[in-house]
Design brief:
Beta-Lactamase; Hypothetical protein af1432; binds fe (ii) ion; about 400 residues; alpha+beta; 2 domains; 6-stranded antiparallel sheet
Length: about 400
């Protein structure tokens, strides 16, 4: 009969420990998990009042994490100097005289007496002191038996390990958040700097105000339509902003001369594609393909472009996108020697030159987007210092297919 009772008790304890294991590893939040764990312990030993305090090494005290049954705990804290933690037994329940001889009791005698604490279980992992569980008297008034104390030791180990893991996770998450914030700051600085460059480039050409911003805008829209991944869309946007940076080295009069360029002047202007690419290659941007896209922005599938006279198979998709975005914006902007084309005329010109000057796939995607007046998704989420959802480049909202159609 007695053996049978022991077996039943053992089964009950094992099952309660399994419950506890599930609670401390469940997907709930850390504090909620510990609350449920405390409830399991309370149920296991028929102890109505229980509280869990966690160690705060910086303040040399223990803060209340969760409690059951105890009232008026508020944000109770237990005082415990580091010298005292070393004296505590590791995960062993302390009761009666043993408890009263600890520094933990001595430093917090008032609170322990007021709460009528019967048992305190110091929580330790291998490496550190984690906290303490305070338990009130059992409903039966009985003391904990040897086997029950053993079960409580195992439960204390589980809770200590769960709290330790949660802390490591919190530290790791904080580190990740800090790294992310540093990365975002750096990224913002990149974009602010790049936009400042683009403004300087555009300022050189009085007829193509904001040209680089619009090219970036169209190019990013095409890349999104082609399902490029977000970091690559960002790369083509940056390439659009910087594609003409080499023009900064050219004379303003030459840039604004328009028609009637001498062959030497033409050659000078043509050099800007490779100069732009070389300048950008010297900046260690996070987007490695940007210099290549820029170098290709005046290349053509038929091999008649510059600077390398590449054929379609050797051209980067980014270069093909920039070429159409750049040409479309040039066509739909006023020039000293001609007024701007309408959207219809520009698209017709793009179609006429598809296969020779422009890539077939990019051309049809872009034409479809313009014809459908497709609203562009947020195109420059990387702009500087504005509230979310607010355009950082208000002028590009005035896009040609809305105003010229
Ligand atoms: Fe260019």
């Amino acid at each position: 009969m007695s053996d049978n009772l022991d077996l039943q008790r053992m089964l009950y304890n094992v099952s309660a420990l399994v419950d506890l294991g599930q609670e401390v590893t469940s997907a709930r939040g850390y504090a909620e998990r510990m609350k449920m764990a405390l409830h399991v312990i309370s149920g296991m030993f028929s102890i109505p009042n229980a509280a869990l305090f966690v160690h705060d090494p910086k303040r040399q005290e223990l803060a209340l994490l969760t409690a059951k049954g105890f009232t008026h705990l508020g944000d109770a804290r237990l005082v415990l100097p580091d010298t005292e933690t070393a004296q505590l037994p590791r995960n062993e329940p302390l009761t009666d005289g043993l408890l009263q001889r600890t520094g933990l009791f001595a430093k917090n005698a008032n609170l322990f007496t007021r709460l009528n604490v019967a048992t305190a279980v110091p929580l330790f992992t291998k490496q550190e002191f984690i906290g303490v569980i305070l338990l009130g008297p059992r409903l039966s008034g009985n003391r904990l038996q040897k086997t029950e104390r053993d079960v409580l030791i195992v439960a204390a180990h589980q809770i200590a390990t769960a709290i330790h893991n949660a802390r490591i996770f919190e530290q790791y998450a904080a580190q990740v958040a800090e790294n992310r914030s540093l990365y975002e700051n750096m990224r913002q600085i990149y974009h602010d700097t790049i936009q400042a460059f683009a403004t300087a480039i555009d300022a050189k050409d009085q007829y193509t105000k904001h040209h680089s911003f619009r090219v970036a805008y169209y190019a990013a829209a095409i890349a999104r339509e082609l399902q490029w991944k977000e970091s690559d869309v960002e790369a083509i946007y940056v390439a659009g902003l910087l594609h003409d940076i080499g023009k900064l080295s050219l004379d303003v009069d030459l840039i604004n001369k328009g028609d009637g360029l001498t062959p030497m002047e033409q050659e000078k202007i043509r050099r800007h594609a490779s100069v732009s690419s070389d300048i950008v290659a010297r900046i260690r941007l996070p987007w490695q393909e940007v210099p290549r896209y820029i170098r290709h922005h005046h290349e053509r599938p038929d091999g008649k472009g510059y600077p390398d006279s590449l054929h379609a198979r050797d051209l980067s998709e980014g270069g093909k996108i920039l070429s159409i975005a750049d040409s479309y914006d040039a066509m739909t902007s006023d020039r000293p020697y001609r007024p701007r084309l309408t959207v219809k005329e520009a698209l017709s010109e793009i179609r006429r030159c598809t296969g020779t000057q422009f890539d077939g796939k990019i051309s049809s995607v872009f034409s479809r987007m313009i014809e459908q007046g497709q609203p562009l998704k947020p195109l420059h989420p990387w702009g500087g210092g504005k509230k979310s959802g607010e355009s950082t480049l208000p002028h590009v909202i005035d896009i040609p297919w809305r105003t010229n159609a």
